[in-house]
Write a structure and sequence with these properties.
mainly beta; 15 strands
């Protein structure tokens, strides 16, 4: 197990290199085994390789992103380029890698305390060339394009810039509240808005006396054209 030093680790996203709280990443190879009659071994193993990154920043660190569902077989524009320069106690385990064309899969904003600060969480995924070696493997290449679907989301609270913007059409609202017994027994109540999201990011860092939260899911689908 390698120990990574946060004070020595840098993250750069589209030129921004400050204001990051935490980051997680993974490079995953998923096998799909093609079983055959008369043998315990698979005939071939199909391999799909993906990269996933999730991170938390102080609100407003990353530039907002307009969400435009795909109308042709071209890449989604909801993406960012991410560089991770992670220093480990064992230099051999240090990482310096750039992940290009990381597609945004989810976003959320949170400011839970009236005197606190807003934070934003982003999740990304990319489909890359599988590079498993051996004659028994079928490696799936990078997709021809990654299409963006329609994004749904929600928001609540009284923060003005809460990190998501909705299309006017299709919005619905509800409410929630809670209070506990005691002296003075303070609680809260909020209106919840759900709708189709047209923009994410840019939430307020400082909004004194206000709280709020929002979230959005951005579906992406890889397509392969021979």
């Amino acid at each position: 197990m390698g120990v990574i030093l946060g004070t020595m680790t840098r993250v750069i996203i589209d030129g921004q290199d400050s204001g990051f709280q935490s980051i997680n990443w993974g490079i995953n190879s998923q096998p799909n085994r093609l079983w055959q009659l008369g043998a315990w071994e698979p005939w071939k193993t199909q391999v799909v390789k993906t990269v996933s990154v999730s991170l938390t920043t102080y609100a407003g660190v990353l530039s907002p992103v307009n969400l435009q569902p795909s109308t042709s077989c071209t890449d989604s524009t909801a993406l960012k380029n991410i560089t991770i320069d992670a220093s480990a106690c064992d230099p051999a385990l240090s990482i310096n890698q750039t992940f290009n064309r990381m597609f945004i899969t989810s976003y959320s904003y949170s400011k839970t305390e009236p005197t606190g600060y807003g934070t934003e969480s982003w999740s990304f995924q990319a489909w890359v060339d599988a590079d498993t070696t051996g004659t028994d493997f079928i490696n799936i290449p990078e997709p021809t394009a990654v299409l963006q679907g329609i994004s749904e989301g929600q928001k609540s609270g009284d923060v003005v810039n809460i990190g998501v913007e909705f299309l006017t059409a299709g919005q619905v609202t509800g409410s929630q509240g809670s209070v506990s017994a005691g002296t003075p027994g303070i609680g809260n109540t909020d209106t919840i808005t759900l709708g189709i999201v047209s923009r994410i990011g840019g939430g307020d860092l400082e909004a004194f006396g206000k709280t709020g939260s929002s979230s959005a899911s951005i579906p992406h689908t890889p397509i392969y054209i021979g």
